[in-house]
Amino acid sequence: MRDISAEVPGGGDYHPPCPDQVLENVLENVLQFLTSRRDRNAASLVCKSWYRAEALTRSELFIGNCYAVTARRVTERFCRVNSVVLKGRPRFADFSLMPPNWGAHFTPWLTAFGAAYHWLEKIYLKRMSITDDDLAQISLSFPSFKELTLVCCDGFGTSGLAILASKSRQLRVLDLIEDEVNDDDVDWISCFPENGTCLESLSFDCVEWPINFGALERLVARSPNLKKLRLNQFVTLGQLYQLIVRAPQLTHLGTGAFSPPEIWAQGSEEPDYEAAFSACRSLVCLSGFREVVPDYLPAIYPVCGKLISLNFSYANINAEELKSVICHCNKLQTLWVLDTVRDEGLEAVATTCKDLIELRVFPIDASEDSEGFVSEVGLTAIAEGCRKLQSILYFCQRMTNAAVVAMSKNCPDLVVFRLCIMGRHRPDYLTNEPMDEGFGAIVMNCAKLTRLAVSGLLTDKAFSYIGRYGKLVRTLSVAFAGDSDSALKYVLEGCSNLQKLEIRDSPFGDSALRDGLHHYYNMRFLWMSSCRVTLQGCREIAQTLPQMVVEVFTSESTSVKDEDEYVDTLYMYRSLERSRNDAPAYVRIL
Amino acid sequence: MVAKPREQNLEFEAAERNLSPGMANQAWGLEDSATDFKETELTLGPPGESRDAGGKSGTKRGFCETLDLNLTGSNAKRNDPGAQSQQEACPTAKHPAAKAKLVGWPPVRALRKNAMRSDGCNYVKVAVDGAPYLRKVDLEMYSSYKHLSEALEDMFSCFTIRNYFNAGKLMDPVDGSEYVLAYEDRDGDWMMVGDIPWQIFARSCKRIRLMKSSETVDIEPITPPK
């Protein structure tokens, strides 16, 4: 850089910034406004000074695979981070396909962040293990810590929550979503600051232990900013009443059990639940209903007209009971239900919820041989009624290609299509054909599709469709499908945007695996379990692609042996580092 | 459904392969997930032998170990192109006894699965005329009227159940009045408990009431509360 101060007449103390420095300052100021991480990644590739400026101004960190990069590398590049999103285990770990203690520990990250990001405010973890000590350390390390969201995490318990609650006095958000929380018998609800809290969101519906209700009541009373409250199933209807009369400003409510206690006094006046809900004029999102006694559903009628999101996925209600609620919900955009509502219930949804964007239908009996209460009839009704649908997850035992084709044509905005026909290898119920044409139509007609999960009887043809038309697909889940390596080859060669590929119990082997060599580094991960890849095949990949970490293990925490014919589980991901040093003994990293 | 000839050949081929010796040490038996013939194969092992994705190594899916038959068949390796190109599943062939518990399928998270099981999820109110409290009862927990009667007896322990097969009459030992078990169905009608098969009752019952039999000359439909 030229030093121009000598050229200024009269010289002296003024040193105007050189042009490069001016540019960097301007750049930093501009880049501050860039929030999308994809845009930022692109900006950082322009040139070195843009790379530097971007690194200085990135405040939100997103790490999709905690093993793709080390904490040290991250903290060396980015120095002004105040929010972190960190994801660990792959999704199939949720279904017991991954042995325990595999990894994804938060502690090393926390140590690095503690040293580098003193002003860290937000942490979002998904499928990671976080300990009670970590929770305590968060409070210690980050004086202005504000938001903790843990999704599908484990390793911590009520004692860690107690410390966080008492020490992080600026805490606004504590959202525990589908975590496994240990019960250390600590009354963590009592530990929030006595004089008042900043709490805006508190979610503990996954905590499987009773909490101190009196303390919760007092907590709600001294949390004037509370907008989102999600209770667990140990909060009864009467207790819910006491809470919502104190907090009519709530926008999101998880209703807990929605049921009276085991015994309650007869003759004593039951509270006016309906009035209490009426007073909640801002309520837009309801969930809970963990032990719902349908008698009490009319209490929520007053809020139905404003509801944007309704989660009935733990509510064992039938078609009639759903209808009585849904008929009022004409603004609904997100609906999760159990299949107990049957096709008839879904038909009612299709009639009323014209703005529906996301639908999930879960099975009350999640087993292969279950009766299955919804079918192609329900799917067709939804397709015809909910034209704005973007995301669907549908568990059933019976489906037809025609229904899936209908959905592909009626719902052109579909981004996520996940159909789970629970009985393996089930063909079209009416024609006995494979489900190839249905899924083919989805990829053909839904131009915006980025996430697909397939099921039922599927031949290689289905995958040729996916490879040919699924150009935007980023996440693909396959189970018990396909005939041969060709299926996987179609996908690896055709789906140029594929990021996450998870496959189980399908006849794909080394030859298909080799076919993806050109693409694996563009992906976040590949998971193949109970397929036909051999150790040798995996080794070849590892040798050819040194930037991939290739892990093999069995789902029962035993090592894959050299003499095993096939590898039980292959989990492969790109990484900037050499292989991790925290893998348990049974994981072989090739 | 008539099995097409191709499929029949496959079954035969696969059956042959499964019966061939020397497969015992294979980590991953001859299970062919596309064809899933292990479901149809006749084994000499006990039913429900582990077929899950996470089988133990060493004994992993060693069905062949249990077979004494020594039909050499094709002993085809899985990447035999001849065998592979023919593969199509036989969808209707399912051997009930051979269906073992699959790990992680259907893909529903454990938290959700457990919640469904533990809640049972068929709660109805039980009220007893004259008693100061109501109870909540989960009908999923019971498999018969007798079972339910016993449970109710426990809950409202001042009564003894008598003749529960006979429309569930109960007797209050204190004042000698008889109680009758009645329920409100989904149409809002009050009926005597015990008239219909248990499963149908469990699905249609909305609430239960132990009524003094003096008040029930015949059970009439009562307008359901608001």
UniProtKB/TrEMBL annotation, chain A:
Domain Transport inhibitor response: start-end pairs: 80-125
Keywords: Auxin signaling pathway, Nucleus, Ubl conjugation pathway
Pfam families per record: F-box_5, Transp_inhibit
Pathway annotation from the record: Protein modification; protein ubiquitination
A cellular component term, taken from the record's GO annotations: nucleus
Cited SMART domains: LRR_CC (SM00367)
PANTHER family referenced in this protein's UniProt entry, alphabetically: F-BOX/TPR REPEAT PROTEIN POF3, TRANSPORT INHIBITOR RESPONSE 1-LIKE PROTEIN
Record protein name field: Transport inhibitor response 1-like protein
Gene Ontology BP terms: auxin-activated signaling pathway; SCF-dependent proteasomal ubiquitin-dependent protein catabolic process
Major subcellular site: nucleus
InterPro entries, per database record: COI1_F-box (IPR041567), F-box-like_dom_sf (IPR036047), Leu-rich_rpt_Cys-con_subtyp (IPR006553), LRR_dom_sf (IPR032675), Transp_inhibit (IPR041101)
UniProtKB/TrEMBL annotation, chain B:
Keyword Translocase: no
Bias (Polar residues): 72-89
One Pfam match: AUX_IAA
Homology family: Belongs to the Aux/IAA family.
Sequence ranges assigned to domain PB1 in this UniProt record: 121-213
UniProt xrefs under InterPro entries: AUX/IAA_dom (IPR033389), AUX_IAA (IPR003311), PB1-like (IPR053793)
Role played: Aux/IAA proteins are short-lived transcriptional factors that function as repressors of early auxin response genes at low auxin concentrations.
Protein's cellular compartments: Nucleus
Superkingdom classification of source: Eukaryota
Quaternary data: Homodimers and heterodimers.
Stretch list, region Disordered: 1-26, 39-60, 72-95
Annotated SUPFAM superfamilies: CAD & PB1 domains
GO biological process: auxin-activated signaling pathway; regulation of DNA-templated transcription
Gene Ontology cellular-component terms listed: nucleus
Keywords tagged on the record: Auxin signaling pathway, Nucleus, Repressor, Transcription, Transcription regulation
Protein name (database record): Auxin-responsive protein
